[in-house]
Amino acid sequence: MECKNCELRQRQYYCANCLRNHLRDFRLQTHHFSSDRNEHVARASRAFKSIEAGRLLRAEIARADYRLDQLADNLAKVRRDCDNKRDRLRTLRETLAQRKRTLHAARLLPPQSQTLTKESQELSVLSQTIARARSGLVQELVEVFHVVEVGGRPAVGGRPGARGEWTVGGLVLPVPGDVRRYPPDHINAVITHTIHFLGLLTFYLGIKLPFEVSWSCRRFGVGMPWIGAVRGTESWAKWTTKHPLHLTSNPSSSPSSPSSPSQAPSVSLADSEAPEQTPAHSQNQSFTTGLAMLLYNVCYLAHSQGVEIPLSQAGDALSNLWAVCCSGELGRRSHSTTPLLLPPTPPSFTLDFAQVLQATAASPARAARIRPGRAAQEAVSRTVSERIIEEEEGWDVVELGGDEGFG
């Protein structure tokens, strides 16, 4: 209503009678709507009761369809299982029939023991044939490389004899203590001959060695030998770094100042070839270690052919190889044919590489013990001494340069 004072429309105010009238009207309306609602609910309930039987019937039909689908799936699964079992049964029957035929054929054959004995005999004959063939190849190899012992004298009148020099291709291969007495070119040539001889010998015999020789390319196209360990579990297998099996002349030496045979270098082989304590890319590769690896290969080859080389004789490589070529067990055991050998090195091979390396790197006075009587040995024959020229220029160990690679 509008205020007479401010002329603004304010909230309407009702008196008690008006409120009672309004409440009565609301109650009447609520009662009317409640009656309508109850009537609609009753009508709906009567309608649901009329369709309940059909609804339950449809639910039962849906349930029956679902169970029928499950039964159909199970039936298909059972059929597949039956088919698989039928196929397996057919396979078992065929296998059984095949075994029966095999058994019948086996009954018609000679006894199994006779067959195995015959096969063993054939294998033994084949092994002997292979051994004879290998022995023939080895003998021809010795003749081609002309591995002989020159010089020396037999024991006469109670006087002890003297051992000669072993040569390959007409070149003397000295023991480690006498390497300083020969020029680098001689050492390189005779070691190269020995490496080729050993490589062909192991190829013919089918033997795998603990240390593998590789070749590096040089500026003149001539490969230089390097040696390092192959894969293994023994103590020698940790020596995987490649070491040289060759020497070079020392460029700092003066060719105009000749030296007498008594003016050999005063340093030992081990001292002149010990690697420097420098970074890995500039370290010298030890010729002494490479030579020890070569000697260890020869000793293992001898062991595989039934020849045991003691540590005191490990330094005489050509003499040990000659003993291998003359072994009565030559060619009978191999890594490629039966009877098979164990991989290098078996427990029966007791020679330790560290001992061979220590003996090889010893000073000349100690290295004499590698070959008894070496210090007191007389001069070799004039033919051999003409080939041996005392070193006028110092020698040095080859460094692995940037233009070299292991071939």
The biggest beta sheet is recorded as: 3 strands, antiparallel
Estimated helix fraction: 40-55%
Q: Cα distance, first to last residue?
A: 117 Å
Number of strands: 8
Question: Based on helices, strands and strand pairing, what is the structural class?
Answer: mainly alpha
Order of helices and strands: HHEEEHEEEEHHHHHHE
- Strand line-up in the sheet with most strands: 1-2-3
Return residue spans where pLDDT drops below 50 for at least 5 consecutive residues. Answer: 251-285, 363-407
Radius of gyration: 50 Å
Question: What percent strand?
Answer: 5-15%
Describe what you observe in this structure:
The radius of gyration is 50 Å and the shape is elongated. It is 49% helix and 7% strand. A hairpin with a 2-residue loop joins β2 and β3. The chain is built from 9 helices and 8 strands. α2 runs antiparallel to α3 and α5 crosses α7. The chain has 407 residues and is mainly α.
